[in-house]
Design a protein that fits this description.
By secondary structure, the protein is of the alpha/beta class. It has a single domain (about 15-285), classed as TIM Barrel (Alpha-Beta Barrel), CATH 3.20.20. The chain has 15 helices and 10 strands. The chain has an 8-stranded parallel β-barrel, surrounded by 4 helices. Helix 2 runs parallel beside helix 5, helix 6 runs parallel beside helix 7 (about 115-125) and helix 9 runs parallel beside helix 10. The relative contact order is 0.14. Residues about 1-15 and about 35-40 have low confidence and may be disordered.
């Protein structure tokens, strides 16, 4: 799940121990094969920074340096960890990175989207993505999603007028039927394609038993963003390219999907450097 919840004190303590090894990780990254480390900007190789959220909580500059050394040229934010938009933009520039997208929780729109718009434009984002719904926000009936679709369409129109694109990131709960319909379909069918793009999380699609290609065919061009996240044989998270998801089949239909940016993500990992370097390598190969 991609959220911006505070990192617990126990996680922080563990993370600090891991982060003491960051200089070693950076050294290791600098010695990676050129095919992983290369920084040519075509194709775009993106990372969702939620993957490294505990490291981000300790040092945003060092984490972005590590991400760049691992072979990425794009990132998607899931929180700014007390850094201003100006500071974030400078750190991105210093590391040869761009940040085409960010995750912004639904509650952040409650006071109106203008603050979200101003922040996104200052950092240099193009996409602002709603990453997750709390149980309260999901409600218990289809009405909650019909109302959400209306909100997203309205906010998306406002963002579009400012030169931004609103997105929605799925998990698996959007595929639990309500009144005979799938909430995910409700969001797609009750919003203007110009006002809302979908950030398809390929792991959660698989978890929900859904076929991405069917959605690409039904809604061509609607999926500008992907989360490239793998699944092991037990149905848990795996490093990209080491699991069971047939990414080659999905990537073969990238044009029909309308994808512009692909972000490696793993919600939980016990080896961050392995996860991000393997992810960059696999995504580069898939994107050729």
């Amino acid at each position: 799940m991609t959220t911006t919840k505070p990192v617990s004190s126990s996680v922080m303590t563990s993370s600090r121990r891991h982060f003491l090894k960051l200089s070693g990780a950076l050294a290791a990254a600098s010695a990676l094969p050129f095919s992983v480390q290369a920084h040519d900007h075509s194709p775009s190789i993106g990372l969702q920074l939620y993957t490294l959220r505990d490291m981000m909580a300790i040092s945003v500059p060092a984490t972005l340096e590590l991400v760049a050394a691992a072979g990425y040229n794009e990132v998607e934010f899931a929180g700014y960890y007390n850094h201003t938009p100006k500071q974030i933009r400078r750190l991105l520039s210093d590391n040869g990175l761009s940040a085409p997208a960010t995750h912004i929780m639904l509650d952040d729109f409650n006071d109106g989207p203008q603050k979200v718009i101003d922040h996104a434009l200052e950092v240099g984002h193009q996409y602002v993505v709603v990453p997750y719904l709390t149980e309260a926000q999901r409600g218990t009936t289809l009405k909650a999603y019909l109302e959400l679709a209306e909100q997203l369409d309205r906010w998306g129109s406002t963002l579009r007028q400012a030169g931004l694109t609103l997105g929605y990131h799925n998990h698996d709960f959007e595929f639990e039927r309500r009144d005979g319909q799938l909430p995910y379909d409700v969001l797609l069918n009750n919003t203007d394609s110009n006002n809302l793009t979908m950030e398809m999380d390929l792991y959660w699609m698989e978890k929900a038993g859904q076929d991405p290609l069917a959605y690409f065919k039904q809604h061509p061009g609607r999926f500008a963003l992907w989360h490239v996240k793998d699944m092991d044989e037990a149905g848990e998270f795996a490093d990209v390219g080491t699991g069971t998801i047939d990414f080659a089949r999905i990537f073969a239909h990238a044009g029909q999907a309308g994808v512009k940016h692909r972000f490696v993500e793993r919600d939980h990992t016990d080896d961050r450097l392995r996860t991000i370097t393997q992810g960059a390598k696999a995504l580069r190969a898939l994107s050729q």
